[in-house]
Amino acid sequence: MPTTFSRINSSAATLTKNRTEGSVTPSSGMCVTCVDGCIGMCEIGKSAYRGHEVIYPQPFGVITTAAEKTYPVDYSHFNIMGTAVGAYGIEADSDKAIFPAVNLEVRIGHDKGIKFRYPWIIPGIGSTDVAKNNWEGLAIGSALAGTGLTIGENVGGMDMESVIKKNRIFDTVDLKRRVKLYKDYQRDGYGAIIVQANVEDTRLGVQEYAIEKLGVEIVELKWGQGAKDIGGEVKIKSLEKAKMLYERGYIVLPNPTNPDVIKAFEKGSFKEFERHSRVGMVSEESFAQRVEELRKAGAKYIFLKTGAYRPADLARAIKFASKYKLDLLTVDGAGGGTGMSPWRMMNEWGVPPVELHSLLYQYAKRLHEQGEYVPALALAGGFTLEDMIFKGLALGAPFVKLIGMARAPIAAAMVGKTIGISIENHQIPVYIERFGTTKDEIFVTSGELRHELGNKEFDGLPSGAIGLYTYYERLAQGLRQLMCGCRKFTLEHIARNDIAALTPEAAKISGIPYVMDIDKADVNDILK
């Protein structure tokens, strides 16, 4: 166990480091010897000349970020329990119970009308530049794979070309483009595009616009995310755009209409404005009213996403989702990914994933035992590969139907895009060139996609989309192998006893038996 869980006062996220990197005081993060004359490379020193700018991960617009705090318990503290006996969801026949036969399809919604080919979803990609610049890959790749993609907060309000009349969205360019890109590549009704809303989006009527004008069937209320307990933030390099967002009602710092601020910006004292969103004020009355408004507006399905708030807020989230018959509740654990969140906040606030997800299971089980409706649940917070996906589904079984991931899919889309650019420029890195020099040679799924889509449509695919699709293909095959080893051939058969806790602490938090205690009854029956 580490002596400290956090790295303090220096991080690649804030472009800071200690002068004496080998000798750092654990409790403060300061150099053991802080000397007069240092230029200030650590967070304290950099804050002496750049102030509030050092709160946020940098550089904005080309990175995603997640906490580097080491939590006492995480999903690596559980192992998957395979078996040599039987099969669930398929005939127990060695010629039939093979891993390609594992069915990963999942259906959610009050009428089971939302169908995904794979049990995961991107829970919210909003108005940050890194999201906008990679949307082609994310939207097309998700649609081709038949999985869910959520358009996050502030997209309509941030669009310079949005038409807003009487404080309501009348028309958009970016939001319309994002929805259309997904729908154009959706196949056989699999997958879903979801439009999320925060306080500003709700005031602007973004979801009503998406339902009425863009044909969106699924909308999501947002209480927060695992990366922060305040509203969304972005940085703005343009004075004109900062003024526009200020006029639209956003919190913009410093005030872009102040003459002194304008002068300071023009002199280069600072180069970016900050746009902040307001925090929501949750009450059951306003929640119920908003759900009713969305249903009257034509929403077919309604989701709720909440973050790593205290347990009472988690209880409110699942209770409200139950009482007002929502179709999905996504719960995002602390430290989760973001395009821009206060760095120390991301590391030091909220309930970590395993603890939060374990509480969610307890609350869902309690509601179920009371005979109340339990919506489909999705877990988020640092999931990246198939073993983590399996563990999350098992920890929350039978209530958890999906795993939410954002940073990992963005990474896959960005890598795919970068490879595409290198192919076009005939500057393929040696590490990649060993696989080939064309999309068909480098991307292992290209043959499958070319066969399914045809040459013309495949050749028009952005490489970011192929990157995301190929990453998803890997996750799917890996998950099928894990499920086959557990003899679970459909997702509905994954259970909490498919994993074991590796430490007594993990067992106590999760309620998952310690590995030395699991199967005790079965062992006694076998050996007696």
Radius of gyration: 24 Å
Shape: globular
Structural class: alpha/beta
Distance between the termini: 39 Å
What's a concise summary of this model?
40% of the residues lie in helices and 14% in strands.
Structural commentary:
The structure is a single chain. By secondary structure, the chain is an alpha/beta fold. The protein has three domains: 44 residues, no CATH class; 395 residues, Aldolase class I (TIM Barrel, Alpha-Beta Barrel); 44 residues, no CATH class. The chain has 22 helices and 17 strands. The chain has an eight-stranded parallel β-barrel with strand order 4-5-8-9-13-14-15-16, surrounded by seven helices. Helix 15 packs across helix 20. The longest helix has 23 residues.
Summary tags:
single chain; TIM Barrel; globular; eight-stranded parallel β-barrel; alpha/beta; three-stranded antiparallel beta sheet; 528 residues
Write the topology of this structure.
Layout lengths: L42 H8 L27 E3 L25 E3 L5 E3 L3 E6 L3 H4 L2 H11 L2 E4 L3 H4 L4 E3 L2 E4 L2 H12 L6 E6 L1 H6 L1 H9 L3 E5 L10 E4 L2 H9 L3 E3 L5 H9 L5 E4 L7 H14 L3 E6 L4 H13 L4 E5 L10 H6 L4 H17 L6 E5 L5 H10 L4 E5 L2 H18 L5 H4 L5 H4 L3 H8 L1 H5 L3 H23 L13 E3 L2 H7 L9 H8 L1
Parallel strand pairs: 4-5, 4-16, 5-8, 8-9, 9-13, 13-14, 14-15, 15-16
Antiparallel strand pairs: 1-17, 2-3, 6-7, 10-12, 11-12
